[in-house]
Amino acid sequence: MHRALCNPGETPERNFRIRVELVCTCKTEQLVGDMLCFIHHEEEEQRRNLGPSLLQTVCTGSYLDVQKTACRFHQLVKACWLVLPHSRRWRLTMLPCDRSCKFKMARAEEEIIIEIMLGVQQGDSDIFMSSQASEALFTPSTTWTLSCAVAEAKFFERMARRAPDGSFHLRCLQLCARILVGTCFSEYTLKTVVMHLLNTTPLSGWHRTRFLLRLDDIMRYLRHCLEEKRLDHFFFGNEKIPEVVLPPALQRAEPFNLFQHLAQDPDAQAQAMREFTDMQDRLTRMLLCNPGEMPERNFRIRVELVCTCKTEQLVGDMLCFIHHEEEEQRRNLGPSLLQTVCTGSYLDVQKTACRFHQLVKACWLVLPHSRRWRLTMLPCDRSCKFKMARAEEEIIIEIMLGVQQGDSDIFMSSQASEALFTPSTTWTLSCAVAEAKFFERMARRAPDGSFHLRCLQLCARILVGTCFSEYTLKTVVMHLLNTTPLSGWHRTRFLLRLDDIMRYLRHCLEEKRLDHFFFGNEKIPEVVLPPALQRAEPFNLFQHLAQDPDAQAQAMREFTDMQDRLTRMLTKMDGSELNIASYPFYMPSPNHVVKVKDPAVVLQ
Q1: Secondary structure of the chain: what % helix, strand, coil (to 5)?
Q2: For residue 590, is pLDDT > 50?
Q3: Order of strands, sheet of 393-399, starting from the edge strand that comes earlier in the sequence
């Protein structure tokens, strides 16, 4: 096969046609016996003995055809599927796709969609001619596009092997990718910037402690490229990429400018600069604790020194932080606890977790469990995580740290916030203890046979793969538990309560509002909330849906999928017939009758 360049004056070596030449196979034919030479045997004889030749099947004229090759591969996958062991457990459905082989594997509630892109390797290099469509609106079926995907994968694999523990180069890429939405910048542009920086910045500089510096580098590099109207392709003309094999022509090529269109169009450059400014603002909002958007969710805890002179007189071996020299304290007691767990005047999550980690390790030897269990401390920045093992048994324990708000059931937790990066001095609001007390109270007051927790577990199973979190579902159930008599949650009425949960969630999606259960809620007996939280304006968990119509439309579609999934789950419950025509949220048709077990034991 030989590659022929398409439009070399426009995009250097990006689009190709692959010319297929016939080769005499007479000698091979003598050895194998059932092979006919394409050149020295008549076409009719070949068709009579072997059917259409592979050349006719995958080529148009003398050129390898993407669509024909994909169709042939499609047929081979379908033919081979029946002899694979997976065919006994999975159902295969071939999906239409012109330039790739795409299919779906399904079993029970699980579905996997796989798309195989085809490629022709350039010699022994890591560069391929791919079946992927070009950036043009129309790509001829004999056109193959240059792909550096394998070379990129090898580059990032090498970086991952050489990077020290705690490297955040991929997190930087992920975070920056989130701010690209709705802009003219592609993820490939961002990936190119990061690859250039990875190739020039020591890997030690990508440690999580220098995360903000590297984000700044990425944004500065991109701004410079926009101002210069030039961003070089990472592989074209780059001879300093170890372990990645490039074709000699690509190494010697003139660097290809990904921002060539900006150099030719001043309006496009001006628009790109405006969108870059918007990206910077978006990144700033993501990194900062923004009380206007998420009220009282992220905190810093300031630690103040208190005079301990009176305590010192009673105890004898305690030095006052205020009235004793720092050197004297260090000489007598070593580094102070303030220095150990704080950064400046603020309690540091990572330092506190590290200190707790050291204490657990030191105390383990005097515990009776140490004679039967082997302790292994596991790396974790914002918690204390360890593994206990004996024989074939292993237990992994993770302890989250928390600072109580006064005498309330609300804590500042060491758990990371929803942002990709959480500063080490940031503690997030946690209602976990308050939620536990709420459910404990419901369990005490609920009659025998109450199914409120089983309803929650069943609904949680249909959330997989959707935009809904388990916390959203838990919030819905807590609202209903607080307003529905507990006698109504008996197992004999579990279908009614499932209906309530789905109706409530649908209503919240339509209204684009789901109130946080604890913010501004004064009707929660036995749970102690800080006065400020009780008086706070209810926080809307669906605020993002109110601001983004596309997100709401997507959520409504996924809600419909959840309804269908719940229908299928209930349909599989065999036993006595139960007509659920009065439950439209999971009713496939007006007269649908579902076979389920006795509702009193269906979830046991």
Answers
A1: 45, 15, 40
A2: no
A3: 374-378, 384-390, 393-399
CA–CA distances in Å: residue 66 to residues 21, 60, 136: 17, 9, 16
pTM to 2 decimal places: 0.50
Q: Which residue has the tokens 């990006």?
A: 14
Which residue shows structure tokens 């990709």?
420
Looking only at the bridges linking them, the beta strands covering 2-5 and 15-19 are antiparallel
Tell me the helices (H) and strands (E) count for the chain, helix number first: 22, 21
- Quote the DSSP letter at residue 8: T
Which pLDDT value is given to residue 458? 83
Q: Is 520:534 a contact under the CB 8 Å cutoff?
A: yes
pLDDT digits (tens, 9 = 90+) for 48-76: 555 566 677 888 888 999 999 999 898 89
Per-residue DSSP letter, 515: B
Least confident of 236-240, 352-356, 556-560: 236-240
Which residue from 418, 166, 419 is spatially nearest to 287, judged by alpha carbons?
Answer: 419
Contacts of 460 (CB under 8 A, 6+ apart): 470, 473
Region of 123 (left: φ > 0; alpha: ψ -120 to 50; beta: rest) is left
The helix (run of H) or strand (run of E) holding residue 144 is strand 144-147
3-state secondary structure of 355: helix
Q: Within 13 Å and on the Cβ side, how many CA atoms surround 503? A: 10
- Three-state secondary-structure class, residue 470: helix
pLDDT of residue 137 exceeding 50, the answer is yes
* 493/600 Cα distance (integer angstroms): 9
If we measure between CA atoms, which residue out of 438, 464, 452, 572 comes closest to residue 500? 452
How does DSSP assign 385-425, residue by residue? EEEEEETTEEEEEEE--EEE-TTSS-EEE-S--SSS---TT
Asked if residue 1 has pLDDT above 60, the reply is no
Three-state SS string over 220-287 comes to HHHHHHHHHCCCECCCCCCCCCCCCCCCHHHHHCCCCECCHHHHHCHHHHHHHHHHHHHHHHHHHHHH
* Structure-token match 């043009």, residue found: 136
Q: Is 311 helix (H, G, I), strand (E, B) or coil?
A: helix
The predicted model gives 532-558 an average pLDDT of 86
∠ CA 556-559-562, rounded to 5°: 160
Sequence-separated (6 or more) residues with CB below 8 Å from residue 193: 218, 221, 222, 225, 231
Q: If we measure between CA atoms, which residue out of 60, 189, 74 comes closest to residue 135?
A: 189
SS3 558: helix
Question: Cβ distance 517 to 533 under 8 Å?
Answer: no
CB 566 within 8 A of CB 503: no
